[in-house]
Amino acid sequence: MKKKAIQAENKKQAKPSKQAGLPDNLSETCTKYPLSWKKRLLNNAGLLLMTLLFIEIISFLAYGIATNQFFSFADLSSKRSLIVQNVPADEGFVVGGLKVPWKVPIHPYYGFGKPQGFDFLQQPDDGIQNDPKGIIVVITGGSVAFGLFNHKKALLQEYLQRIPVFKDKNIHILLLGYLAWKQPQQVTALTYYLAMGGKVDIVINLDGHNEIVDTNTNYKKDVYPAYPWLWYYLASNTISAGELRLIGEIRYWKVLRHSLAEFIDKVAYGVSTNVIWFFFDRLFESGIEQRNIRLSKLQSRDKNSRTFSRFGPDRDFESLQARLEFSSDIWRTSSIQLNRIMKANGGDYFHFLQPNQYVPQSKHFTQQERIQAYDPRRAKAIETGYPYLIAASSQLKAQEVKFFDLTAMFKDVEAAVYRDTCCHFNDFGNELLAREIVTKIAQYYANNAVLTAAE
């Protein structure tokens, strides 16, 4: 009896208590609590949404702290579009923020490049050189002059044709300038052109930026500042293994940056996705910049191993001020020589200091320009160097150079005129530039003797 009582007691303890509210099986659970799994699903979904919202808020705040700007889908999308559009190509490599093409035509007299104005010298009997009613206008300078010629040549012809003194003349515009040119390349190009039999009535020199920025690039490579842009690489017959390795790394990082931007551009719907891309893009940009710096410093500066053809005269500058004075003096004396050359050939010379977005208070930036055409890292060189060029204007005018400072011409222009972070203009900017240049030329001829075509 005692044994049976113990067994009964054990069965009683093993059986789930109905008072505890615990069902016997799963089907009973679902019957008694039919909404519990839905609640769990909703709770999990809510937790996920709260987590995503938390990540979005943190990303928004992190972007603001890192950039000191409010997050903007439009701004990041615009920056990403520029990267996507700028597909990495094998046309050259970048040193110190400047592109070095693989195949630059080296010229023994004016440095490098093949200005379009030289082409017709191979055809001395063409209609331009021998047009009795022709007025040959030569444009020289760097990439801004190059862009003005290529985009607004027809407009320049139209504007010049309206000047009364040119009413019955045929205006021919030629280019004696090239990308990244700086003085004294413009002087040597014109003298070579004239030596080869070229004729010219008017020279328009549009320059200034490269004399400040590109001279500094040469100096960093210990190359004579008066030499053409990046002469160290252009005059090199060989590139070292270390340079090639860095060039390859730079190319690889550019491809990674472009690929990431291209991918994110398709899926960037949230704040966090955009912010994550932004920080990765800054990482890639920093990696590219660091390798460019290493590339620019790679070669030894042992003066015993310097070759004259690559480095030029040995010249040390005790300060940035001394270097800027040297460069601005070359710019000034080159302009004076161009003016004398044109006077000796019976023509006129007009010198224009090109506008630049980094000249303080020279332009009220649009939102588009702030995104596409402003880089604070580039501002210091112009802010420091342009005053030397502006200060030289009085000396140029004292030497009877027809000099015009255009740095403030966009001060009251509300629309966008700059298209990149260097110095180049969009179509509207080039149109305004062409109009301003011809206006100054027209004012001169309205007050001076009539120009006759070169004989």
Structure description:
It contains 16 helices and 9 strands. The protein is of the alpha/beta class and 455 residues long. It has a domain at 112-225 and 316-446: Rossmann fold. The chain has a 5-stranded parallel sheet with strand order 6-5-7-8-9, with helices on both faces. The N and C termini lie far apart (143 Å). The model is unreliable at 17-22 and 450-455 (pLDDT under 50).
Protein topology:
Layout: H1 2-14, H2 26-32, H3 36-67, H4 73-85, E1 92-95, E2 98-101, E3 106-107, E4 111-112, E5 134-141, H5 143-161, E6 170-175, H6 185-195, E7 202-207, H7 209-220, H8 231-234, H9 241-267, H10 271-297, H11 308-311, H12 320-344, E8 348-353, H13 367-372, H14 376-391, H15 393-398, E9 402-405, H16 427-446
Parallel strand pairs: 5-6, 5-7, 7-8, 8-9
Antiparallel strand pairs: 1-2, 3-4
CATH architect. name of the domain at 112-225 and 316-446: 3-Layer(aba) Sandwich
Order of helices and strands: HHHHEEEEEHEHEHHHHHHEHHHEH
Query: What is the share of helical residues?
Result: 40-55%
Query: How many helices does DSSP assign?
Result: 16
Strand content: 5-15%
Query: What class, by secondary structure content?
Result: alpha/beta
Arrangement of strands in the largest sheet: 6-5-7-8-9
CATH class of the domain at 112-225 and 316-446: Alpha Beta
Largest sheet: number of strands, sense, barrel closure: 5 strands, parallel
Overall geometric form: globular
Q: Kindly report how far apart the N and C termini lie.
A: 143 Å
* Low-pLDDT windows of residues: 17-22, 450-455
CATH fold call of the domain at 112-225 and 316-446? Rossmann fold
What is the CATH superfamily of the domain at 112-225 and 316-446? Answer: SGNH hydrolase
Rg for CA atoms: 34 Å
Which whole number gives the mean pLDDT? 83
Record field, number of beta strands: 9
